[in-house]
Write a structure and sequence with these properties.
Layout (H helix, E strand, L loop, with lengths): L1 H28 L15 H14 L12 H4 L46 H10 L9 H9 L4 H8 L9 H12 L7 H6 L8 H12 L16 E3 L15 H4 L7 E3 L21 H13 L5 H11 L8 H4 L8
Antiparallel strand pairs: 1-2
Helix pairs in contact: 1-9, 2-6, 2-7, 4-7, 9-12, 11-12
């Protein structure tokens, strides 16, 4: 009888500790805002036509000079919006100068590209098509001419842009791809926590969340995307080893922007390596260690890194299969 009472008392103490741990997490959740929610294909006929045109163009290799590269080549909708390479391979086997960031959830970022040179996904979509080392089309006019030469696209553009004359324009290419990318939302286990389900994370993941918050990671990786909403100096405390790429400085020419990059979202970070603009870390645990050292001036223990990685894995979500699906066919 005594043993039973002791066991029940111990269980009660553990329950109180668990409640206490959950209660300690609650105040931090406001840092991350509202949970992400899965998006569906639109019901409206014109809106759906726009998204489906965007899906087709996103996967259309004929938007490249040699018909071999599409947006999806580097930002695969079935591979967390990346290609898994340190640097993507563009036209004529050219390696891009920066690691290709994920296209998932990107429309919610403050801007696009590592240096923020495009304000929206619609503008971003038009960049790589004309970039010499990527899809390498010679001009916007050449893109429009090529699309006009593919008979089936006329009807698709007219259905998506009923009030545009002509319907096939380069801006409309960007608008269609952007409309498709604006459905790239990937809710995860973490969003269940943000919605109030405190049991969504296990104890190790909760420890990782605590360390993530109390160590200062949330200074930059904040909001419901855990990043993507500010620019920050890479090598804030300890200089970044690779100083060749100066980030936003190349765009603004302002000294204060040297080594400033858009802070990446940590959504799906488990699946989107190699990490950083220069692809310099292969493993997520290494990336956490490197960030602690260069941004926070701290050395995490192996256990702390393991806990943080466990938390970061709760940010892995899935794109709605109906949105991730490749086009059933392409225009002839």
């Amino acid at each position: 009888m005594f043993l039973r009472v002791m066991v029940l008392a111990l269980i009660g103490q553990l329950s109180l500790l668990e409640i206490s741990a959950d209660d300690s997490i609650k105040p931090w959740l406001t840092i991350f805002g509202k949970p992400l929610k899965t998006l569906e294909l639109p019901k409206d006929k014109v809106a759906l036509s726009l998204v489906e045109l965007g899906r087709t163009l996103y996967h259309e290799k004929r938007l490249s000079r040699d018909n071999s590269i599409s947006c999806n080549s580097c930002h695969d909708t079935k591979a967390f919006g990346v290609d898994g390479e340190k640097f993507s391979v563009g036209f004529n086997n050219h390696l891009t100068g920066r690691n290709s960031p994920t296209s998932f959830n990107a429309f919610m970022h403050v801007s696009q590209f590592w240096d923020g040179r495009a304000p929206t996904v619609e503008e971003q979509a038009k960049g790589p098509i004309l970039a010499g080392g990527e899809m390498a089309m010679p001009s916007a006019e050449a893109v429009v001419k090529k699309i006009n030469g593919i008979k089936g696209y006329k009807d698709l553009f007219e259905a998506a842009f009923p009030n545009s004359s002509p319907a096939i324009t380069y801006d409309n290419v960007g608008k269609a791809i952007g409309a498709y990318e604006r459905l790239f939302v990937t809710p995860s286990k973490f969003d269940k926590l943000l919605a109030g389900e405190l049991s969504a994370l296990n104890e190790k993941q909760k420890r990782g969340l605590k360390k993530f918050v109390t160590s200062g990671c949330v200074t930059c990786h904040t909001g419901n995307l855990l990043g993507g909403n500010i620019y920050q100096k890479l090598g804030l405390v300890k200089p970044w080893p690779n100083q060749k790429d100066q980030g936003r400085f190349a765009i603004t020419k302002k000294e204060q922007d040297k080594m400033f990059f858009k802070v990446p979202s940590l959504r799906n970070i488990e699946k989107t390596g190699p990490y950083f603009h220069d692809g310099s870390s292969e493993k997520l645990s290494e990336a956490v260690e490197v960030m602690a050292r260069h941004q926070l001036g701290r050395e995490f223990s192996k256990e702390e890194i393991s806990d943080i990685v466990a938390f970061l894995k709760t940010l892995t979500g899935k794109l709605n299969p109906s949105i991730a699906a490749y086009p059933e066919k392409f225009p002839d």
